[in-house]
Amino acid sequence: MRVAILGCGYVGLELGRQLDAAGHDPIGVRRSDEGIDAVETAGFDAVQADVTDADSLATVPDVDAVVFIASSGGRDAAAAEAVYVDGLRTTIDHFGNREHPPAHVVYTSSTGVYGDHDGDFVDESTPLDPTTAKTKVLARAERVLLDRTIAHGIEGTVVRFAGLYGSDRYRLSRYVEGPVTEGYLNMLHRDDAAGIVRFALTDGAADDEDVLLAVDDEPVDKWQFADWLANECGEPEPPKVTKAERLAEDGLSEAARRRLTTSKRCSNDLLRDLGYDYDYPTYRDGYRAAIDAYRDGSDS
Questions:
Q1: What is the DSSP string of 93-134?
Q2: What is this structure's pTM?
Q3: Which of 27, 109, 154, 251 to pair with 2, CA 20 to 30 A apart?
Q4: CA distances from 246 to 219, 228, 262 (A)
Q5: 299 near 177, Cβ under 8 Å?
Q6: Which domain holds residue 164?
Q7: Is 178 domain-assigned?
Q8: How far apart (Å, rounded) are the C-alpha atoms in residues 229 and 231?
Q9: More confident residue, 36 or 299
């Protein structure tokens, strides 16, 4: 299978490595020279193109599947709209109008589209209720993916990522030093994020699902996680802050305020039922390498 990975960055590079190891033909698509260098260093083909420019996308060869995993670079909702909504529509229409269109397009979204559920569990069937400008953009992009792929007769899948961590993104000091605000963490190791997309592309069990909730086995209370992590690292348990204390702080942005008041736990029952096998089923598995590095004096 030949797969174009559009926005082949943190997760996309790992996805390309996994596809290549499994005998598939990944093509990493990036806008910048530095991005192209990263793809080539990862050991598979690279093409320079911009998802918001149909003429640019013409440089990407025909493929069997497209993974849209582009980033807006952490910018505002307008920038996110340009990439996730306009760019996704441009991408699907461009590839869908080719003489040999792909059979499958995967778009990677976020669990942020669920909004607040007061700590209750959510799954693929839970109605969306995004609360921030950016998560509203992500929800609109999901609709674009599902509507435009149907219009072109292409299989479309939304994969909603929980909070990603892994190599270079463990952020141990945030939790070990604190203060840590109360709430739930829904997490997913980078390698499993890539693995779930690969699973959606290559495993027939996922063919009938248009949405997959990508999260590990165990949503965890932030205070519990921080105490566990500190104990494993040989550090004192960090200071804690309640939501009420954080919300009372001066200068708190509206986006930060909404994040603080958004609480949910995400279920991976569907992925487990479909047969996905996690490399890192919980944070205890996923953080082991980072804890060992911290204790050796090389915190990542």
A1: HHHHTSSS--SEEEEEEEGGGG---TT-EE-TTSPP---SHH
A2: 0.95
A3: 109
A4: 22, 22, 13
A5: no
A6: 2-169+187-219+268-282
A7: no
A8: 5
A9: 36
